[in-house]
Fold UDP-N-acetylglucosamine 1-carboxyvinyltransferase.
Amino acid sequence: MNSIKIHGNQPLKGVVQVHGSKNAAIPLVCASLLAKGKVLFRNVPRISDIDDLVAILRKLDCNVRFKGHLLMIDNTNLKYKPLLFEECSKIRGSYYLIGVFLTLFSKCEILLPGGCKIGKRPIDLHLDAFEQLGFESKTEGNKLFLVKKKEVTDVVVRLKNKSVGASLNALFSCLATDQVILENTLFEPEGKDVIVFLKQIGYCIDVEEDRIYYKKKSLDFRFVKHAIIFDRMETMTYVIMGLLCGNLTIQNAPIADLQYPLELLLQSGYQISFTGTVIKAKKSKGKGICLKTAPYPGFPTDLQALFGVLNAVGEGESVMEECIFENRMHIYSDLLKAGASIRVEGNKVYLKGVNQLAAISCQACDLRHAAALILMGLCSTGTTVIEQYDLIERGYEDFIRKTIAMGAEIEVLLNQVPNNVNG
Ligand code: EPU
């Protein structure tokens, strides 16, 4: 298990660049298989979830070149194979390949998706949409099988509940059908970026509130270049780092997509300012921020733990409620150990800001928990040890190196595997 030691309370200062969005890049890379012609993505984040997807595409005989933040995908030699590669069960976003395969091959066999353990995360809404489109599914152990059962030509598919993943997957899976209306969909900025790309490669899609209208037409060959939107969660992670520990300038910030969390920080008296695509965040104490997570444009669940750290050392009381995932409250037991004043009741947390946190030893459970623990360590007195810190690499490019470059004192302790471990 890899761990880090953070020697806390060092003032941080500097300029940091935000990269392309993880949650846009993952479905976009899968959607590249739907193109007729080569695709060049710019602004692709160098994170482990994308490396895993690239490995899958190569195993499917795609020609993939990944240089810096440019990713060129040529799917000319793509052929059907069961998706039984270990990478499929490592990441969550591999489930987007199901929708893509149903459109391309009318069938799919895949290992059940993995990803952050932040709740039960069933895929029943995806399967229900596939069924409405004529596909039958069955699960055996850790494998999922889907195959076309009946031909549908003109259909209205209604998602039973709002889901980011199921909305995109329903869209991916319906593209071989003549005419489809998808109802009750949910597209956050990342999903909207994917729709822009699908239109670029030639699909005929119209969006009207939570409805999607799709009409099939034949695709022509084209070489498509698409620049991925910048990551709103990475942006806010550095904003909060600045507010907790120093004076940071964050570049490439997708400010329009962050109106609600930025507004909350301003109203609470934190020292932030923004112009164009730049945010400046300066160490400051603000009033406790009360919030409930909700789909965009509400408060993002991915930022809940990070705002928890801010509230733990803010001024006064706050109440936060997690309404999307049922197991995203790990950070509060760590903050409690570090001296925060916290009471958790189900999916609600009551906080009262304290002056200072003390260093603890802890273990990260998921990507955003890892980010929140690192922020906690950076503003605590003493040396915080975080095991499994490298979960951060699933979604943040070069996070530790960048944080050190801004003045943090962090030691990376890599797990020493004995030479004879494999006999
Ligand atoms: N849900 C179901 N059944 C389904 C699908 C979802 O019950 O078939 C439930 C989920 O368990 C959850 C709720 O519906 O309680 C919402 O889930 P949703 O499908 O909207 O989220 P997701 O597609 O699983 C994506 C991001 C998450 C992000 C959420 C919300 C990816 C790969 N993941 O998850 O990102 O939190 O949307 O914005 O795009 C992260 O980046 O750390 C992360 C977890």
Q: What stands out?
A: Residues 22-23, 26, 92-93, 116, 118-126, 163-166, 188, 301-302, 324-325, 367-368, 395 surround EPU (CB under 6 Å).
